[in-house]
Amino acid sequence: MSIKLKKLNEQVMVITGATSGIGLATARMAADGGAHLVLAARDGDALDTLALELRQRGADVATVAADVGNPADVAHIGQVAMERFGRVDTWVNNAGISVYGKNEAVALEDMRKVMQTNFWGVVHGSLEAVKLMKGRGGGAIVNLGSEVSDRSVPLQGTYSASKHAIKAFTESLRMELHKEDAGISLTVVKPSAIATPFPNHAKSYMEHEPDLPAPNYAPELVAQAIVHAAQVPERDLYVGSHAKLTSMAGYLMPRAVDRFMTRTMFGRQQSDQPNSSVRRDALHTPDAAYELRQRNDSDHRVVERSPYTAFEMRSVPAKTMLLGGALLAAWALTRRPWERRVWHA
């Protein structure tokens, strides 16, 4: 069975972590594109408010208050999707949380919670989606990784580990489904730093408030990549050229990147504001103060376009032609002068 994905306006799409940041941007974009939606998040009140907004735009929406770290909750998401719409065409595993601090300082309980949500939430969602898609025409599973899926950063060791694990699990599952010819596409989306309330949701052990290192890309760019992967089979999609460059540099020059991050990333992940002793976070329970917010209040300039990501989402023939042209130009420039002479008969 070859992978044949439906157009967005013909799809039933499940989105976890739908009430904030990337999940919220994706829910709104998918609704505007005509998809039927099953939205999941921990905060039921925020889900109800979002569903009302999207229904007023004409979208058909079902909601499920769920913690993706709990397999029973994820099974309930699938049950609601089948009862309401009879199928699932795309399942987006987006829910994610983080904790900032040196690995020695972070409580094991908090590390386990990050892994339970970020990694096990993807495992639970992916396996539920496979169960619902197999034998029903296939579909797309879109898992939210990160640029730290390829290259870890200090002060977010557990978050980096969870995103590494998502990449490894998705690759393994992809090969198994390909062997079965199951007709299911699996994509890992790897965003750079995105201008969402992500630091506000996180728990922090640092001296100053968490911050996102520049450049910060718009969450709508990630939503575009997710919606694209729902309709076109892709293996990986990097959102922002910075994510791709970080990945390549980490692979080609790991020690140099270690030194660079040691010098820069301790400061760039903290603002100049002291970490409040009464600071709330959404690690173990949702924080209503930052629900239904697509972007954060940071002073960083937001990058609204990514030519690299737009190139990634081009058709295969177009990408092949452009890449081939670039390689041909590079080959021509590196030839010796006498090899570039034009010989006349």
Textual characterization of the structure:
With about 350 residues, the chain is α/β, with parallel strands linked by helices. It has a single domain (about 10-315), classed as NAD(P)-binding Rossmann-like Domain (Rossmann fold), CATH 3.40.50. It has 11 helices and 13 strands. The chain has helices spanning about 20-30, 45-55, 70-85, 110-135, 155-180, 200, 220-230, 240-250, 255-270, 305-310, 315-335, and strands at about 10-15, 35-40, 60-65, 90-95, 100, 140-145, 185-190, 205, 210, 215, 235-240, 270-275, 300-305. It has a 7-stranded parallel beta sheet, with helices on both faces. Helix 1 (about 20-30) crosses helix 7 (about 220-230), helix 4 packs parallel to helix 5 (about 155-180) and helix 8 crosses helix 9 (about 255-270). The longest helix is centred in the middle third of the chain and has 26 residues, at about 110-135.
